[in-house]
Amino acid sequence: MGEKLFPEYLNAGSKGPAVVALQLLLLGGGNNLAIIPDGIYGEETVIGVKNLQEKDLGMQSDDVDGNFGPKTRAELKRLWNIDVNALPADIFVGETEAVEP
Asked: Which of 14, 64, 91, 100 gives 53 a disulfide partner, CB atoms 3.0 to 4.6 angstroms apart?
């Protein structure tokens, strides 16, 4: 198996194809209409991830942080059967620049 699209963490300041994929996922949820899939993990994407974590995935307190990391992905897979870790890097052009938490 080749490289994966998503690095271990995506959070504010990250840029690139994995952020676009995340933004499209958030838009598909229907409650994050201010998000523009521009590949920049800015304020609206942070808000969208917090909404996903709290409202859609039922995560609590410290886990609602706006970061798209292992806990959020595990809940996404458990509840919705969406495994973003299985997406190959070559479905988009370019590389993701991740910011460590």
From this structure: 64
